[in-house]
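Please decode residue identities from the backbone states below.
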């Protein structure tokens, strides 16, 4: 048995800092072309830990490499003062949980594609455009505080969309692909903002004194759901607001990290047991006539937290992460608010909870799934060292659940996503790859837009 010590990737918590200015920066930033590093050979398969008490888990293809210590940003800058931070369990760093060593080993599999390659800082919070060609994400690759970026799924060039000195996190692409909503603490506390998907001035949608995170769009693009905490209250709530009438907000239910069903009226989210622990499960509510009805627990585990729900494009499945023994993770770490499991895996469950299958099983922390077209699930993993974006095909897991995956018509660079081959040029060939792939350098000016090409 191999001993795995708890590591602390930088992306899994959101440092809440007090900003001096509420205005978006207008400084231009050029995208950076980078070449992905090759995926190393998968280690020898080892035993799978199944959080649902079964003997074995259905494994879809995924390439696993050994995890390494991830870099941690301290989240401090001149002119900022530290204030509460929130981790994947919605806690501030004052929460006291003892750290332990995890001594179980995990089976590894094949067929993961690397999407981003940040050697410094972290890439996290992926959101895929409806056509499957673009991925939006938050990153600390250029400074300790995070900004919003975009890149082609099969490209290397990145475009920086925000450059505020505060934290910009959790981008969410609108159903028509023209706008992104995100959370930012540029006005002091975290609020929800909306901007063009190709850059420009961000418009503030919420302005409550509490903390508001994880926006998600209704299928018609008129409503945003998000989670929030009120001042003096650490219980997370889910609210909705009209995008064009931001003052019209309504409470729905208690929970964290909502995600709206594509083409439907159901909102999935994570909710913990009301016993002061971290054993989250995945729930859904139906949004009918402005009210949350039919609360349903879709998936839970007696030994793991089920977190980070994400809908499939057809609204029939939910991808999520599992963290075994979540109460063993330390909330207080060298960097304020940083908390991460040593190991976490991705699963898929039918929306009615009737079947499930695992996507990953290995020593890395695989979190924050974002389902894109082409039966691929994008996620964040530290399997190659730093926290970066990866993707995995879900076909084998769907077949194991008794489903017949349809061949996707979504394309990236004119090729069906299910048929794309991974391209891994050497670092010295990055510029040649960028030229051959047709990527060009764009600039995002404040108040203007850089069109995707």
């Amino acid at each position: 048995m191999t001993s795995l010590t708890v590591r602390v990737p930088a992306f899994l918590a959101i440092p809440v800092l007090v900003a001096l200015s509420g205005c978006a920066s207008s400084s231009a930033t050029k995208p950076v072309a980078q070449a992905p590093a090759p995926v190393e050979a998968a280690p020898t398969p080892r035993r799978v830990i199944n959080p649902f008490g079964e003997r074995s888990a259905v494994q879809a293809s995924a390439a696993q490499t050994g995890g390494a210590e991830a870099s941690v940003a301290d989240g401090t800058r001149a002119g900022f003062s530290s204030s509460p931070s929130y981790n994947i369990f919605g806690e501030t760093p004052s929460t006291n949980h003892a750290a332990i060593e995890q001594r179980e080993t995990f089976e590894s599999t094949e067929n993961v594609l690397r999407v981003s390659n940040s050697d410094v800082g972290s890439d996290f919070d992926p959101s895929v455009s409806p056509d499957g060609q673009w991925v939006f994400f938050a990153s600390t690759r250029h400074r300790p505080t995070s900004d919003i970026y975009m890149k082609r799924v099969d490209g290397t060039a990145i475009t920086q969309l925000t450059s505020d000195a505060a934290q910009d996190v959790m981008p969410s692409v609108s159903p028509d692909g023209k706008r992104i909503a995100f959370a930012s603490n540029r006005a002091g506390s975290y609020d929800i903002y909306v901007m063009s998907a190709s850059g420009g001035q961000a418009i503030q949608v919420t302005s409550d004194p509490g903390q508001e995170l994880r926006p998600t769009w209704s299928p018609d693009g008129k409503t945003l759901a998000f989670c929030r905490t009120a001042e003096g209250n650490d219980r997370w709530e889910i609210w909705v607001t009209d995008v064009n009438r931001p003052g019209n907000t309504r409470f729905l239910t208690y929970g964290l990290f909502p995600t709206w069903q594509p083409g439907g009226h159901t909102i999935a989210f994570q909710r913990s047991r009301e016993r002061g622990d971290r054993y989250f499960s995945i729930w859904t509510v139906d949004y009918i006539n402005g009210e949350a009805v039919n609360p349903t627990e879709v998936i839970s585990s007696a030994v793991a937290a089920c977190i980070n729900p994400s809908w499939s494009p057809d609204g029939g499945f939910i991808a999520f992460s599992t963290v075994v023994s979540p109460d063993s993770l330390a909330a207080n770490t060298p960097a304020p608010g940083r908390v991460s499991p040593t190991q976490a895996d991705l699963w898929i469950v039918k929306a009615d909870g009737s079947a499930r299958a695992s996507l990953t099983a290995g020593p890395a922390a695989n979190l924050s799934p974002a389902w894109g077209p082409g039966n691929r699930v994008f996620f964040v993993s530290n399997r190659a060292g730093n926290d970066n974006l990866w993707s995995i095909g879900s076909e084998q897991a769907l077949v194991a659940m008794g489903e017949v995956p349809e061949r996707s018509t979504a394309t990236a660079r004119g090729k069906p996503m299910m048929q794309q081959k991974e391209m891994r040029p050497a670092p010295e060939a990055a510029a040649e790859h960028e030229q051959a792939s047709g990527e060009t350098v764009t600039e995002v000016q404040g108040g203007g837009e850089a069109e995707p090409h």
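Observation: The helical segments are 395-400, 430-437.
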